[in-house]
Amino acid sequence: xxxxxxxxxxxxxxxxxxxxxxxxxxxxxxxxxxxxxxxxxxxxxxxxxxxxxxxxxxxxxxxxxxxxxxxxxxxxxxxxxxxxxxxxxxxxxxxxxxxxxxxxxxxxxxxxxxxxxxxxxxxxxxxxxxxxxxxxxxxxxxxxxxxxxxxxxxxxxxxxxxxxxxxxxxxxxxxxxxxxxxxxxxxxxxxxxxxxxxxxxxxxxxxxxxxxxxxxxxxxxxxxxxxxxxxxxxxxxxxxxxxxxxxxxxxxxxxxxxxxxxxxxxxxxxxxxxxxxxxxxxxxxxxxxxxxxxxxxxxxxxxxxxxxxxxxxxxxxxxxxxxxxxxxxxxxxxxxxxxxxx
Length: 342
What we know:
By secondary structure, the chain is of the alpha/beta class. It folds into 2 domains: 10-97, Orthogonal Bundle (Arc Repressor Mutant, subunit A); 138-340, Vaccinia Virus protein VP39 (Rossmann fold, 3-Layer(aba) Sandwich), CATH 3.40.50.150. It is built from 14 helices and 10 strands. Strands 6-5-4-7-8-10-9 form a 7-stranded mixed β-sheet, sandwiched between helices. Strands 1-3-2 form a 3-stranded antiparallel β-sheet. Helix 10 links the parallel strand 4 and strand 5. Helix 3 (43-50) crosses helix 4 and helix 9 packs parallel to helix 10 (185-193). The chain is globular, with a radius of gyration of 23 Å.
């Protein structure tokens, strides 16, 4: 008899269980568990070293093991007890000394969504309050140094570099713009990949300071500069052969005007790349996008329908507009569109 069938209600029970998993991971990060378990250890030793209750520690470690953040095994010299060890996944992405650490990025998203989820009754009755508990907290400069910086380094940069082969052949020299580039890791990676190119990383003033720090750390001050500006109102320069713009239109007062400004900043034949989350008619895809970007629609910001970005690019006077497909980032997928200035 076959009992391995999934009940249609199972996804909703998974949702109910998610806060337990989230808190388990948050505590693991707060207590430095993944650093501690780089060498295999028993639950008893973990509880003693971290001054925790043993019974709760056993369940906690097993829960993290079930999330594939720990491995567990019986060691030959201690067959009576399970030994836990940090998994390769956690070692790469949730330990402080890893170049691919994104613990702060995950914590920021998890805490924001937890705070937002507690506001549904108020939101449904009164709408979004810009200064309410569901609004983002903290400065953009701090975010650029920490969680956004981690996301760019670990997620966005590898994705962008892997997409370069989809573009028309780029000349050996040129000028690039990372528009709304935050801490600037994407622009820096592009400049490293295109050694004959110069570039500008453009974002609001306090974030541009962080980008300039990263430019200096990368040794690219002779080819890159950070420009602090209000993307809603200020000039962004011109003469660019390639502009990268990711998740920027969502936050602007007049996205169409900003897109027209970007198109006008291109040299003839220059390429504009737009990477943004979009609404989807596929419920599985929408389930990944809406928790992160539905808040933007509540604020009255752009949350584009399929085809809307391409239509805006055409309205800005770009030609040869085409979709390069969906990029499945861990947080939520984005769609990449390319257009060229005639």
